């Protein structure tokens, strides 16, 4: 016997060791206790819309034979648990009470889990297994859940997900003290013929519940879904402007309708099986008789980017081009195109391009292959768009800017207050038009065409400088640092042109030598020896003359030496500078004395010129008088107000920095001669040098630098266009989602334009934001056009469109008989007529007249039915238990999801 026991071939089964599935069940029980799901609770009745609220989840991983299985707890947050004295341990489980409520029917929001949509529960456990699960059968996970629920006393329903994830196939159970419920499901690809109608579904439901006994009236909820696919392309929604060609209008919107389908949901929320008939031969379920009409929209996918954001994106792509100068090689004769274009103030461009493109003065068909990157016809249109003063018949001239009120008028007429801080260019200015035009050329014809257009632009700037022709579409005055750098440069060029014109017109009356050419005159003007000689002659001629160049007497200051009034002199105009030139200069508050050499030459020239003007206006003035007027901070008055000089002024002295050794101001004062500003030979502003600097800056721009210079103006234009689209319709302006999106876009465009260094990443984020806003506006306009045409902008319409834009199901005001319901019927009718005409055209059948034919809806795309009843089960002697079944029928899917409860005591 001992030998037999010690035989290694004998197999011993230890039945005291837990198996893997027993450990699995034990782990589920511990998790249920940990989450406190075994404590009985009764919640407030579920209300309509509760299942669309916020859900909370908890997750635990359970190991079964090396496989990780997911156990989740889902719970609807809203709903307050009654007090302890209101609870009754003998009541039906809360899940079975919830499923009998009509508030849980037909929930379609994505935030609601599919288990809750199918079975109408608001709290449940879900066990998710893998396809390669090691369970011996599909029902074994459900058996484990049922054992764990029974052992722990948990009344929360538990489900196990089987088959593929996309099938949403759930089986489950709910264990109460007196009632047990089984959750069952059927999922087929094809609907059985008898289940397509309500009569067959009722027979199936009754056969599952009763065994020959008479059932009470069955409550029904029915929903029919009719889908309408948008076949027509989206109309163009452009804000009307007063230009004829439309080039000033940035493209806006989508090439196709952003709405793919409209889903009309006809619902009968509360019926009984004795009130309605729905069979193959007859049906009472007519959409026009439905108690509730609701609507959902389905957005189209994989649409092309919207047009406006695509324009801004194109300029961002251009900013990714290499950093080489943005130029293009042309022959000499092609370079002269704009010279020929502007040889007259009103040229004929068609004649010019004929000579330029052929390479000679006579046109020839054999030379047309030399055409540039842009066809001549389009290039002519582009140039006239940028420079309308070259076209006598231009329909798009620039507005006339008033030097004082241009900024105010522009802001009041076109700019909302939110755009006041944008650092861009005036709307419809030259920079504005260039920012609209260049990205369109780049997107259509590539970088070579954009480079060609920029080459033509810089050549035109050179020609206008040489011929002293002002640049159109630029705000007058000095460079406005509140605008973008490109607009500042063009303002600077215009200032140089105006100075050149003024000097050439007055030169004949001032100097005999001004009859020479412009270039020679400019060179001689800055000759140092000539300047010194002429200035000395002027000083000698004015030694015994009266004071010159006085503007007006100072209201409070008197000369320290004579007590006479201190006259403010007429000085030379300040030198205009663009923002980048100002930033590149050394600070003007550097120390004025010492040998460090920190005083800027320009500062010395300005100070010396003003000293000369001051001496000419105040022959008896001294350095202290000049400092009191020019730099009051460097004149320190005596602390005692009673110490006055003989002229009744408080005494004072120069500041400490003015008393430094080798003070530069003292040296400049000693060298300055009494010469009024109009007679001074040295000019503070050299228009030739400044203009050449602007032209060199323009010609040296790379594609990236040019794109970054234009991006503020284009972003500004896009923001204005977006705001215009929102405000073009009073109803759209009231929608809560559109105005905040447009305002956020404007704020970010303003912030991007004011960055010290333009950032491409900032504008790329702006492109994504603009694309979202543009899609939202196009969707709202499409809905407005289809459902709410006319001037109605009531709060009801606003709420209706708002819910649709949020992709929610929304009730149609007035139902089938309301105004929106009438528009929906018209859309379905037109769709049927279009489909019928297409069918007749394909088959060759003659067209049939629709007059006199009554409209009827097509067959429903989806039919959903919820059946519920309280009946004894499993036998007539059992207690009454709640029963529910949900049925879904569509062309490629059939689903039954039922909860069938039974008496656990009397069966």
From TrEMBL:
It is found in: Cytoplasm; Endoplasmic reticulum; Golgi apparatus, cis-Golgi network. Its main location: cytoplasm. It holds the Pfam family Rab3-GAP_cat_C. Residues 396-421, 504-557 are annotated as: Disordered. GO terms for molecular function: GTPase activator activity. Residues 517-546 have a biased composition (Acidic residues). InterPro entries: Rab3GAP1, Rab3GAP1_C, Rab3GAP1_conserved. GO terms for cellular component: endoplasmic reticulum; Golgi apparatus. Keywords: Cytoplasm, Endoplasmic reticulum, Golgi apparatus, GTPase activation. Residues 403-415 have a biased composition (Polar residues). Residues 710-907 form the Rab3GAP catalytic subunit C-terminal domain. Residues 544-699 form the Rab3GAP catalytic subunit conserved domain. Belongs to the Rab3-GAP catalytic subunit family. This is Rab3 GTPase-activating protein catalytic subunit.
């Amino acid at each position: 016997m001992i030998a037999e026991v010690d035989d290694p071939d004998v197999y011993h089964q230890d039945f005291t060791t837990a198996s893997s599935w027993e450990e699995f069940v034990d782990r589920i029980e511990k998790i249920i206790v940990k989450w406190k799901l075994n404590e009985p609770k009764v919640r407030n009745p579920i209300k309509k819309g509760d299942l669309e609220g916020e859900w909370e989840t908890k997750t635990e991983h359970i190991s079964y034979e090396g496989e990780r299985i997911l156990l989740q707890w889902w719970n609807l947050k809203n709903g307050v648990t009654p007090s302890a004295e209101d609870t009754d341990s003998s009541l039906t489980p809360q899940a079975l009470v919830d499923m009998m409520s009509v508030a849980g029917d037909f929930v379609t929001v994505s935030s609601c889990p599919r288990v809750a949509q199918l079975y109408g529960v608001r709290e449940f456990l879900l066990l998710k297994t893998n396809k390669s699960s090691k369970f011996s059968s599909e029902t074994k996970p459900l058996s484990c859940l049922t054992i764990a629920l029974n052992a722990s006393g948990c009344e929360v329903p538990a489900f196990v997900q089987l088959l593929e994830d996309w099938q949403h196939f759930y089986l489950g159970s709910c264990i109460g003290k007196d009632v047990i419920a089984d959750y069952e499901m059927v999922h087929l690809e094809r609907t059985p013929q008898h289940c397509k109608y309500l009569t067959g579904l009722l027979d199936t439901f009754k056969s599952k519940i009763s065994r020959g006994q008479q059932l009470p009236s069955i409550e029904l909820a029915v929903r029919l879904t009719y889908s309408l696919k948008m076949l027509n392309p989206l109309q163009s929604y452009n804000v009307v402007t007063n230009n004829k060609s439309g080039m000033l209008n940035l493209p806006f919107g989508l090439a196709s309708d952003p709405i793919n389908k409209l889903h009309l949901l006809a619902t009968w929320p509360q019926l009984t099986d004795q009130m309605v008939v729905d069979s193959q031969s007859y049906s009472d379920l007519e959409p026009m008789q439905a108690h509730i009409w609701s609507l959902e929209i389905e957005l189209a996918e994989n649409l092309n980017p919207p047009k406006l954001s695509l324009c801004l994106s194109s300029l961002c792509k251009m900013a990714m081009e290499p950093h080489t100068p943005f130029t293009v090689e042309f022959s000499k004769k092609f370079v002269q195109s704009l010279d020929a274009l502007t040889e007259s103030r009103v040229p004929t461009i068609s004649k010019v391009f004929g000579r330029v493109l052929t390479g000679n003065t006579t046109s020839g068909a054999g030379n047309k292959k030399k055409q540039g990157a842009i066809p001549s016809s389009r290039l002519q249109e582009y140039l006239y768009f940028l420079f309308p003063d070259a076209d006598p018949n231009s329909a798009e001239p620039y507005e006339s800017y008033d030097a004082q009120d241009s900024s105010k008028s522009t802001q009041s007429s076109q700019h909302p207050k939110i755009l006041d801080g944008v650092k861009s260019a005036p709307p419809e200015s030259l920079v504005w038009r260039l920012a609209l035009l260049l990205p369109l050329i780049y997107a259509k014809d590539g970088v070579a065409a954009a480079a060609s257009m920029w080459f033509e632009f810089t050549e035109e700037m050179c020609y206008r400088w040489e011929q002293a022709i002002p640049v159109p579409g630029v705000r007058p005055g000095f460079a406005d640092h509140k605008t973008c750098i490109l607009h500042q440069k063009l303002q600077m060029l215009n200032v140089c042109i105006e100075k050149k014109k003024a000097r050439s017109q007055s030169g004949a009356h001032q100097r005999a030598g001004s009859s020479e050419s412009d270039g020679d005159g400019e060179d001689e003007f800055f000759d140092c020896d000539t300047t010194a000689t002429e200035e000395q002659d002027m000083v000698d001629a004015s030694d015994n003359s009266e004071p010159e160049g006085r503007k007006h007497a100072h209201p409070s200051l008197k000369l320290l030496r004579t007590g006479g009034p201190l006259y403010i002199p007429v000085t030379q105009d300040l030198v205009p500078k663009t923002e980048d030139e100002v930033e590149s200069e050394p600070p003007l508050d550097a120390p004025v004395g010492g040998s460090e050499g920190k005083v800027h030459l320009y500062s010395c020239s300005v100070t010396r010129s003003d000293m000369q003007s001051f001496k000419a206006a105040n022959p008896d003035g001294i350095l202290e008088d000049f400092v009191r007027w020019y730099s009051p901070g460097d004149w320190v008055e005596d602390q005692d107000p009673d110490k006055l000089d003989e002229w009744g002024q408080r005494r004072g002295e120069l500041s400490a920095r003015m008393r430094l050794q080798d003070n530069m101001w003292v040296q400049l004062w000693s060298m300055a001669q009494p010469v009024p500003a109009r007679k001074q030979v040295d000019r503070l502003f050299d228009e030739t040098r400044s203009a050449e600097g602007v032209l060199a800056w323009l010609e040296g721009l790379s594609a990236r630098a040019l794109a970054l210079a234009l991006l503020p103006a284009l972003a500004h234009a896009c923001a204005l266009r977006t705001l215009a689209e929102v405000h073009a319709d009073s109803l759209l302006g009231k929608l809560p989602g559109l105005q905040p999106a447009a305002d956020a876009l404007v704020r970010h465009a303003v912030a991007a334009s004011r960055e010290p260094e333009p950032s491409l990443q900032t504008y790329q984020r702006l492109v994504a934001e603009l694309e979202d806003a543009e899609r939202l506006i196009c969707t709202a306009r499409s809905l407005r056009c289809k459902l709410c045409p006319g001037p109605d902008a009531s709060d009801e319409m606003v709420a209706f469109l708002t819910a649709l834009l949020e992709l929610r199901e929304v009730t149609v005001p007035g139902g089938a008989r309301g105004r929106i319901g009438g528009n929906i019927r018209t859309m379905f009718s037109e769709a049927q007529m279009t489909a019928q005409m297409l069918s007749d055209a394909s088959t060759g059948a003659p067209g049939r007249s629709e007059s006199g034919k009554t409209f009827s809806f097509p067959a429903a795309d989806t039919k959903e039915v919820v059946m519920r009843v309280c009946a004894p089960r499993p036998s007539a002697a059992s207690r009454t238990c709640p029963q529910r079944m949900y049925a879904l029928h569509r062309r490629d899917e059939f689903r039954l999801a039922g909860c069938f409860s039974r008496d656990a005591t009397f069966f």
